[in-house]
Amino acid sequence: MSHFYATISKSARRTTPTARGHRSTGIETVTQSFNGQIRTVLWYDATTNQDMYKVILQPHGTNSHDGLVLATGAINC
Questions:
Q1: Would you list the domain boundaries of the chain?
Q2: Mean pLDDT of 38-49
C-alpha cells in the first residue's frame, strides 16, 4: 500500500495523472515555468515517526535538491 500519493489536479490533460510513493521511497514533484521551478519533496522520517516535506525554488532544469528552501517541516494536519 502506498504511503504517499500525488495528483496533477489542473492541467491541459483530460485525465488526472497520479503517482504513488512508499515510506522507503518518498515522493517528489517538480513544477516548472520558463523562469524556474518548484521542487516538492515528501519523505518519512523514521527517527521522529513523521511525514516530512520540503519546498525548494530552483533554476529551470535543476535535477538536485539545491536551491532556495521556501519551507520545510512535518506534515501534521
A1: 25-77
A2: 97
